[in-house]
């Protein structure tokens, strides 16, 4: 004999079943830990990467411009961390705009990195003080370019507002592919 089950009863049963199978909600302390930037979670790792990116010396001159690399601006020293390996490289800033507290930046990596990842977590490191400024996600777009659209602090927006792509950049990059403990 078939019993009639209303849609409401079926949905309530499904909700109760889903709640029983769901993992426990994280505690407040766990949420705070997850919100910490990676350089606070792994300070020794961050310091080692800062020292490495700080040692990168890049020669730049107008005579170095090649036909296939039009003169865009100063290269930005970068360390690429991917799959447990580190690669020293540089990035060419192709577009830079700071407006209404937002940074819009496009860059292209100068080293062959194999298959280009869809995204990087880019940590901007102060060139002089070797301290983290902020992290932002860089998404792959056309011609192996990466795009960043990030909110800046009021101080950074004020300092970086007048920057042009042809200016020497006041930062270095730590590029992390994936979010493992690297």
**N-to-C SSE series?**
HHHHEEEEEEHE
Kindly report how far apart the N and C termini lie: 61 Å
What portion of residues is helical?
25-40%
Q: How does the helix and strand content classify structurally?
A: alpha+beta
Can you give a write-up of this model?
The structure is a single chain. By secondary structure, the chain is an alpha+beta fold. The protein has one domain (38-176). It has five helices and seven strands; from the N terminus they run ααααββββββαβ. It has helices spanning 7-21, 28-35, 38-41, 43-55, 154-160, and strands spanning 75-82, 85-99, 102-109, 119-126, 132-140, 145-151, 171-176. Strands 1-2-3-6-5-4-7 form a seven-stranded mixed barrel. The protein is elongated. The termini are far apart. Mean pLDDT is 84; it is low at 62-67.
Compile the SSE list and pairings.
Layout (H helix, E strand, L loop, with lengths): L6 H15 L6 H8 L2 H4 L1 H13 L19 E8 L2 E15 L2 E8 L9 E8 L5 E9 L4 E7 L2 H7 L10 E6 L6
Parallel strand pairs: 1-7
Antiparallel strand pairs: 1-2, 2-3, 3-6, 4-5, 4-7, 5-6
């Amino acid at each position: 004999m078939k019993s009639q089950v209303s849609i409401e009863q079926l949905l309530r049963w499904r909700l109760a079943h889903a709640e029983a199978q769901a993992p426990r909600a994280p505690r407040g302390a766990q949420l705070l830990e997850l919100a910490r930037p990676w350089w606070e979670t792994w300070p020794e790792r961050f310091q080692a990467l800062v020292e490495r990116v700080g040692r990168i010396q890049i020669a730049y001159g107008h005579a170095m411009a090649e036909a296939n690399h039009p003169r865009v601006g100063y290269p930005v020293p970068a360390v690429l961390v991917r799959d447990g390996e580190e690669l020293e490289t540089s990035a060419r800033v192709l577009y830079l705009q700071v407006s209404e507290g937002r940074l819009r930046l496009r860059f292209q990596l100068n080293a062959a990195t194999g298959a280009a990842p869809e995204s990087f977590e880019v940590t901007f490191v102060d060139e002089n003080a070797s301290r983290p400024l902020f992290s932002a996600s860089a998404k792959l777009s056309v011609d192996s370019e990466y795009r960043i659209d990030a909110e800046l602090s009021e101080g950074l927006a004020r300092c970086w507002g007048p920057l042009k792509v042809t200016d020497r950049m006041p930062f270095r990059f730590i590029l992390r592919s994936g979010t493992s403990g690297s």
